[in-house]
Amino acid sequence: MEFRYLGRSGLKISEIAYGNWLTHGSQVEEDAARACVRAALDEGITTFDTADVYAGTRAEEVLGRALKGQRREGLEIFTKVYWPTGPGPNDRGLSRKHIMESVNGSLRRLGTDYVDLYQAHRFDNETPLEETLRAFDDLVRQGKVLYVGVSEWRAEEIERALKIADEMGFDRIVSSQPQYSMLWRVIEEEVVPLSEREGIGQIVWSPIAQGVLTGKYKPGQPLPEGSRATDDKGGADMIRRYLNDDLLTRVQNLKPIADDLGLSMAQLAIAWTLQNPNVSAAIVGASRPEQVADNVRAAGVKLDADVLKRIDDVLGDAVIRDAAKTVSPRTRP
């Protein structure tokens, strides 16, 4: 395993992180989830990412039980706040009330006294940004949170938060957690340049595009049974935009590149995200331990410029680059 600094902070994290969105407490039974976490630990992964909303808070519980007994100082545990975790109007968003109540629930479910990184899971257009940042700063001063970050924020939203933090003496954002893959590159035009200037590291999710970049979805063929695309608990909604024959054909044409490098297609896809120097870690998920072992082989892989060009030539205009695709709800969900 290779390790990278989280932005300009002094925190080092494993460049392959393990995430449990759509798996723990949902798609995967707890025994299988625990086996995946053990595999991640065995492979040298120290960074684990979750969120209060995943599987209706059950994902945090499963991860907490799976990590019980591990040396806490040897782990980096990340979680998030924003999406609804209850029926009330204050059980969502980034108000001080919800942040304070949510972090206490996350700590209880995870079985820890603190989280290494606490992330605003979307931008809250209904809460003053000063209120959110002050609440985050208070959590840092209380020792419940060591670092703060954001997920799926636009460049101008991050820039506003940095300005307020500097003016008010709050802890600055050190991380951004966006979707990023060979196919989805919307952060490259605005978020990455800002982050490079301001010392923010990307912790990217869906580096294999919900499984599309593994090559298991074939043009003109039925969806594989049990795959993300057949999941009625949310997975199918995310992957639908990729399931057209033109794009799937282009993805199949990446296989010779992976073969030439002695990599699986998943390894190639994950390694591709890690070539971006602003990326601190790529988050992988798994429903089976062998998937973890395969994905971790992307750590430390270096792709030459000619390989990157071959990938770009194959994918062509199938790549999504529009920065406007990063959108938070106009009102709290």
Automatic annotation (TrEMBL):
The record ties this protein, via Gene3D superfamilies, to: NADP-dependent oxidoreductase domain
Taxonomically, the superkingdom here is Bacteria
Q: Where are the transmembrane segments?
A: none
Q: Which InterPro entries match?
A: K_chnl_volt-dep_bsu_KCNAB-rel (IPR005399), NAD(P)_OxRdtase_dom_sf (IPR036812), NADP_OxRdtase_dom (IPR023210)
Q: Which Pfam families match?
A: Aldo_ket_red
Q: Which CDD domains match?
A: Aldo_ket_red_shaker-like
Give the record's keywords alphabetically. Answer: NADP, Oxidoreductase
Q: Is NADP one of the keywords? A: yes
- The record places domain NADP-dependent oxidoreductase at 15-314
The similarity comment for this entry is: Belongs to the shaker potassium channel beta subunit family.
PANTHER family cross-referenced by the UniProt entry: HYPERKINETIC, ISOFORM M
* Protein name, entry field: Aldo/keto reductase family protein
Q: Record the organism.
A: Actinomadura violacea
